Amino acid sequence: MDEFQTGEETAFVTDEVTNIVKEAIESTIGPNAYQHNKVNQWTSNVVEQCLNQLTKLGKPFKYIVTCVIMQKNGAGLHTASSCFWDNGTDGSCTVRWENKTMYCIVSVFGLAI
Amino acid sequence: RYENTYKTEPDVKFRSAEVRDTIKDIFERELGTMKYDKERCISLTTTLSEKIKHSVKILGFPRYKIVVVVAIGEQETHPSIAFTSRCIWNQNTDNFSEYTFKNASLYAVGLVYAMYMD
């Protein structure tokens, strides 16, 4: 198989995606305090906003976006992920965000088509 | 790296139910009646996600890219966590599988996403 340089357009750019995720979180839950009845709506909004912005990038990628929102009350949480993909083109990024009352963890996985 | 085959339909489609049982077995075997312990859970999440990925690979879904996510947390009296995910994929060929395990002191969520690469 011939070796050739993967172009910029087809690699997962972590910085770009991190910015998109941060913006989505800040605009959805930025100033709010944890409210149990709103949490489902918030997670959906964060995820959908991320996906909208990611598709606007126009790259040939399939995306998986996961969002966890957790109240700050002392409980512990650990997450890990393991992927079977193409190291040259695929990538992931995780953004951890918090305010006074809650934690928000968003992970984006991008798989090249 | 894999070249495109432009074969739009996979030979073997991802079997969601079978993978769900696999996740269930691994969680029940590894976690069972374990108590939540901060130090242990750090390494446990990575080991579990590797184990699940390995089992899914053995089940055999050629040309599928696999993403496994595992989350382990402490059981609290009042539920205070929400977990959501959305994907952009091909509805015909791609799928996911999920299983949540609970015991008295902890909960574990296992997710497997499978994306067909044509």
From TrEMBL, chain A:
Belongs to the dynein light chain Tctex-type family. It comes from Magallana gigas (Pacific oyster). One of its GO terms (cellular component) is cytoplasm. This is Dynein light chain Tctex-type 1. GO terms for biological process: microtubule-based movement. One of its GO terms (molecular function) is dynein intermediate chain binding. Keywords: Cytoplasm, Cytoskeleton, Dynein, Microtubule, Motor protein. InterPro entries: Tctex-1-like (IPR005334), Tctex-1-like_sf (IPR038586). It is found in: Cytoplasm, Cytoskeleton. It comes from the Eukaryota.
UniProtKB/TrEMBL annotation, chain B:
Pfam families: Tctex-1 (PF03645). GO terms for cellular component: cytoplasm; cytoplasmic dynein complex. One of its GO terms (biological process) is microtubule-based movement. InterPro entries: Tctex-1-like (IPR005334), Tctex-1-like_sf (IPR038586). It comes from the Eukaryota. Gene3D superfamilies: Tctex-1 (3.30.1140.40). GO terms for molecular function: dynein intermediate chain binding. Coiled coil: none annotated. PANTHER family: T-COMPLEX-ASSOCIATED-TESTIS-EXPRESSED 1/ DYNEIN LIGHT CHAIN, TCTEX1 DOMAIN-CONTAINING PROTEIN 2. Belongs to the dynein light chain Tctex-type family. This is Tctex1 domain-containing protein 1.
